Records
---
Amino acid sequence: MKNFFQNRFFGGLFSGSLAVLTALLFSGCGARIQEFQSVDTAMGTVVRQTLYVEGAGEEFARELTACVNRLEEEFLSWRLEDSEVFAVNAAAGTGENRELSGWMRELLERCREVCEASGGAFDVTLGSVARLWDIDTWAAAEQSGYVLPSDAEIAAALEGVGMDKLKLQSGTISLPEGMSLDLGAVGKGIALDELKSILSEQEEVAGAVISLGGSILTWGSKPDGGSWNVGVVDPFDVSNNLAILTLPGGTCVSTSGDYERYVEVDGVRYHHILDPATGRPAESGVKSVTILSESGFLSDALSTACFVLGVEEGLALAEYFQAEALFVDGDGEIFMTEGMERYLTPTT
Ligand code: AMP
Ligand code: MG
């Protein structure tokens, strides 16, 4: 996908990153490479960056975060009034055929492809159901006073769901009454693709590992030639990793888990990954799915889709898109694609 922001890379917003210069390293040819770390927020999540950079690491980190913020503000947010998704949602039911940016058109076509390949398990038109459950207000915690939606409310919200009901033709879009787009399942992955594109067009950052919540990009190489190590969170104890993935630069890793955002009512956990077939949190027997792909879009879309599909169909879907997948089921059993094994070192 074309990098929409590349021309404006250095015209960015100041995002106030908390940055810590941690070490000075030297590359073989004598140019000074510094390890630079920063922690910030964007897209409603924590952004952690480790950059191996020649020169001003702080400026790079700030610009990369600003790129993620612009993506959210100008395109992806269903909540911010200046975004393209907001405008498309606001026109639902009016019959208006809205002009789409080329970037958004391509993105929605790719979402449609994953939707079809997953038999509808991944569907970015389920905004009405996500808003009904109010998942964006959930933290990973018990929440007092939360009232579960009724069957009738869920059935009504589902009326507006289905990519097949979406009119997407020759550069325009029209949503039927009650439909609303929610790109929350792919936003972070798309952002990783944008960051990757920016990083590949400059020479100062030799290597990087950047995480946006549950989606992580490795890029380039470390000055010491070492590989990138990324932990797979244990969904039964999120303070621990159950495995370490040793990855080459250029890999996107996304995890969808029932521990990321949920509410508990009467001892039952309701999480944020919804099954478009039922309008309820998916009950596929899966606790978490981790996907590896060179594409951030695919890693993110497939982690959500595979969570909804469960182990068997999810493995087939990942293989169809030539991505690697690791599932942890409700009994703590691990299932993975054959190609995943070469990256994985269990921690116990
Ligand atoms: P992720 O954490 O990447 O699995 O994405 C979950 C987010 O995507 C939720 O917060 C919703 O906004 C949205 N979502 C939930 N279920 C689905 C689904 N089945 N298909 C597409 N988007 C979804
Ligand atoms: Mg996802």
---
Amino acid sequence: MRSAADPVDVTAAVEVLRAGGLVAFPTETVYGLGADASNAAAVTRIFEVKGRPLGHPLIVHLSSADQLDEWAGAIPRDARRLAEACWPGPLTLLLPRSTRVPDVVTGGRSTVGLRVPAHPVALALLRAFGGGVAAPSANRFGRVSPTTVAHGRDDLGDDVDYVLDGGPCTVGVESTIVDLSGGEPEVLRAGGVSDDVLASVLGRPVPHWGGGGAARAPGMLAAHYAPRARVLVLEDPEAVDAATRSALASGSVVGLLAPVVTDGLSLEVIELEPAGGPEDYARVLYDRLRQADRLGIEVLVVVPPPAEGVGVAVRDRLRRAATDA
Ligand code: TXA
Ligand code: MG
């Protein structure tokens, strides 16, 4: 039922979830493509619609940390601390799964990713639904995550049963994933919650897992965050100048994305609107990459933001976008 506190009417979306359908919904990070996490057939459809290989586990979205015990089989104290400090927010906790989590959600793994998103529409949906909503980003497999409802529609069109519009995402890159499923906590994916925040909550720095993404968090190693253009990440202005010149000389359509306006650029280079400091950069990154595709840019030279705060996550995504795979 619609309550006065709900920012939008989520009744129809809840009915779709209960019937085993798919709902695209906004979060503060990126749009998600959600299904009832307890309904294995509904979750399987997510993989079909996205074109995502089975075995890439999904994050289960909850309305509050009170639901942790239903979905996790063990909850270390560090997990409780992080949940209390960062939820609702762009943090996913990887924990031993409870028996109620279907295999298809976790790709058969013994762990489950859980998060409470900080978006009024997502929270209204999750509260009204009552259960967990399994959701990856609402893009086709291999495309950049959607940060507006139009991005999601461009990618998934009529394959989604219901779309909730919550405006542009305010964080713009995906959640930070922290593995708390055994031993010392480790960051598996940089994201919206910065290293500084994690360290201040736990009273010690949380290392980033350095072993490559394949085994620990499948779906994060290959170039999953790439536009069609070849991406070159360069920081030194002379290197930027040299790279744009040589790409132009070889006949490519060349674009540039940078934090600020770049002086002395060749007129033939398509300069995308500057992305600003780390937080602004994160917010606009995926829209700029999609824009590069629309403009037919073949070589995109990118000057990243500094590795501060969410800038670490932006640099991580750009590094992946620049990886041939
Ligand atoms: O911000 C976000 O996290 C967004 C919004 C929609 O919540 N979701 C998102 O989902 O980015 P997705 O599916 O695009 O990325 C989730 C990542 C995957 O790379 C997957 O490998 C990892 O989380 N993951 C989820 N559950 C896991 C598990 N049990 N073990 C290892 N990795 C897991
Ligand atoms: Mg994704």
---
Amino acid sequence: MNILAIETSCDETGVAIIDVRDSTTIVRANTLASQIEIHAPYGGVFPALAKRAHAEKITTLLIQALSDAELLEPQEEMHTLTNELAFLSEKESVLQEHLLPFFSYYKKPDIAYIAVTVGPGLEPALWVGVNTARALSIVWDIPIIPINHMEGHIIAAAVEKIDEQTYKHKPLAFPALSLLVSGGHTELVHIEHDGQYKKIGQTRDDAVGEAFDKVARMFGLAYPGGPIISKLAREWRERSVPNIFELPRPMMYSGDFDFSFSGIKTATLYAICDYKEQHGDMNEEAIAMLATAFEDAVVDVLVHKTYKAIDAHGIETVIVGGGVAGNTHLQEVFTKKAIKSYPNLNLLFPEPWLATDNALMIALAAANQVLSEHIKTAPSETLRADGNLSI
Ligand code: KG4
Ligand code: ZN
């Protein structure tokens, strides 16, 4: 059974096509267009620019994905749509301009479901994906499976990779816990059984990815700063020299499962000011040292609180998901502790390229619904994007 998936929640436009068989997903197409260059000058994602870029790119990605999956077939006769897509003309004129010719040139493909991210994320950006899914659903008469972006991050870390094209949806040992760490979220989610999510903790201020990006900006590094800080810190640690910086670990012993990262960020800023007062501008070495101290503090808090939740809830499986899940120091510290004190814990991380936003994770979340026979479709007429959607 083929599923076409769409992701436009932030600054990556993605269209993927998978074929779901037994407990296996075969990837037939996985396209992604990054907007990093568009947003880099602003040091963060600019919603109106994100919306426009998604609207300009998504039809090209649809064509690419259908072609990669060998599902793109021209219409025998040019097909003119009447007013089925009138809803696009008001707020999605750019999307409409690209989608109308697409529908008149190409036939309905062999697709059983359209999966789309409906939230959380930047609402103007989400709407492009949602309206594309609605248009495809109306014209092709294919049902829509709305997907929570955070569930996509969880499933992307929970599937087992067999080879480049094949993923296995293996049964997990429950109760499970997911630590979700991305540019917009930092959450601990308790999973009693497949699909039964309950948030037990979250950040009270910045998301951890956001803190990485803001600290990188203080150093004058490019956006997104997470991977750059991570690389600087890795290289610094390899040198095994003492670090002159030490940063606080806010809320580490707060007794609940919430987080706070704005304090570490502010402490980093003060450390930069102090250093400059005493030594002048920060050289590469000083930046790498402070970046390491920042990463140490963040990772310590994340790992400490997650293991607290593991103890409190008798957790069997931990799934770390979201862009920051690709952080190698986080993975190492987590894994070391599991090996030392939790030998029976199943600790799951996504492949690095599947950790950051993409459409395959949305397809995999839909595949999970199909395989567990709990498919939740939604009518295209009433489908909405919800920037604050909770898990
Ligand atoms: O999940 P994601 O692609 O987008 C959101 O849903 O937000 O996460 C992007 C975030 C960015 O803040 C980026 O800086 C951070 O993940 N990130 C990292 C690493 N790779 C991406 N942060 C720390 N270390 C990394 N290796
Ligand atoms: Zn994400």
---
Amino acid sequence: MSEAGDLIIVGSGPAAWSAAIYASRAALSPIVLAGEQGGGQLMLTTKIENYPGFPDGILGPDLMAGMRRQAERQGVKIIDKNAVKLEKSDDLLIVSYGNPIPEHSENSDDQNVRKSENQKAGNSDTPILRQSDFSGSPSVPSILESKAVIIATGATANTLKLPGEDRLMGRGVGTCAVCDAPFYKGKNLVLVIGGGDSAMEEAGELAKFVNKVVILVRKDVMRASAILQNRIKALQNVEIWYKTEAKEFLGDKLLEKVRIVRNGQEEVLAADGVFYAIGHTPATEWLKGSGVNLDAKGYILTGLGIEAGKSGLQLPSLYPTSTSISGVFAAGDCVDSRYRQAITAAGYGCMAALDAQKWLENNG
Ligand code: NDP
């Protein structure tokens, strides 16, 4: 194992930090590319009461800050920049970060500069982690090289960017009712936007706590599986409003009302909460052209991802979190479209770090 380290971790949510903590304790000297905003989806939540170990709950940003501090205390090096490209070159993995890769960069001077800097550093046959900092240049990204990479870039809950959304996100407007439903205990009305399986699941969870749940479906049919639809339709306190769209969230410090258009008619509803369940977008755009196989929605395929079985892709079974590129592992919501919880992402990160460690031992 090189003293300089062998592992780059991309991301800064629970999967990334738990991977970093485990990798650091395995003396892999990981570098975390944490992104410019950092912290992932938990930065948009308020109190988290389902993460074990915090009996009184913890604020999402505090949980993230704590994980980051724990990684820092273990000596993890952190770079607060976005990864923009992953490439494999012989036995090395190259992660570019910072400035976006110019469109023409494949054969461009930029690329040549980066290659020659690598050669100058004499790294072609020494697969250690190295940083070439070109941050002075307006167009050339910086690069990191390593033998192994863990991708934990997460996913973003899709929202409609409605008026009032930024102000009230986490204050009545949310993206995870499974996480937040108990906070709405005894409330009169909570809305769910969407008609897929997630919307059914969110509505079912809310229905345990609130007096009335209304699902707003933009079309006259729902996409959700029949079994989940039937389960929801059987609940007394859930209504489904078809051909209905939310248009605006109203309220100063907390959500008070939602302006909707139902069957072409505008209404303003007094609502205690509203949850988006209109899908997620994994943050994997930057992997285009890298050779990391993604599913149709952009989730990374690994041996543990739910789509992997369906895809027929042969993935190395020795390392369940491996992607289609040897030495590249993936963890958390960029792989997992199903569970999407902080605790499952953290568990995934741990698994990826253990797989990367084993892989490095076998391929070092
Ligand atoms: P989906 O992509 O399946 O559904 C998204 C829903 O949001 C659709 O009803 C869609 O409507 C609606 N929608 C999209 N854009 C808008 C918009 N702009 N305005 C209003 N509505 C919109 O996402 P899910 O998160 O529900 O599910 C993701 C995956 O996870 C699926 O494969 C699902 O099966 C799986 N899953 C499985 C569960 C289970 O088995 N228990 C639970 C949760 C998820 P439209 O139909 O009109 O496009």
